[in-house]
Amino acid sequence: MILILLGKSGSGKGTQVDLLKDKLGLDFLGTGALLRERKKVGDFSANKIASVIDNGGIVPPPVVFKLWMNKFDEFKNKGDSFKGVILDGSPRKILEAQLMDDALGWFEWDKRVKILLIDISDEEAINRIAKRKICPKCGHIAIISDSIDLDVCSECGEKLIIRPEDTIEGTQKRLEWFREEVGETVNYYESMGRLIKINGEQSIENVFNDIMKEIEKDDNN
After folding, report:
1. pTM for the complete prediction?
2. Adjacent-strand bridge partners of 198
């Protein structure tokens, strides 16, 4: 099973990824995590990736594709213990979507692919991001409210922070980028009838239940 999760900042993709991993026993592939790991190698590409990311740029599809292929090889070599993988936030560009299709076909994983868009409005995204803090150590996201303001990560005890980019202005820039870049990929999948939209403006439980209903359709047919 291959699950591709797309969605704006604040859509709750990370939360749903954690729930799906626990429920289905799937592996996880996050392009951001792959790039951060690749930065540590110390060669030309590592330094170039670091420079691009640290300056707010986008690493080009061929570089990302190479990282995917290396990771897919690791999964394939797990044999029967490999149940599938969740991809968080990728592919972003249409070229990446086409390369992803080729890669999934190469590894013979193209028969059961679900492409899910957790759909929320821009207003909802801004509202959610304005109410969150993030753990700089483990990446856990905590939601604050008018009555509760959390300071310490419930997962690892690290002090939570509000990232500089998690301002209204920063969020609006990311939403604009999503429309311009990922929006084309969303339209690409939708035009082929492959996109499954999930209402992300529900409770976490209801979003998860809707995703599971879509996944289980294949099993019930």
Report:
1. 0.82
2. 118
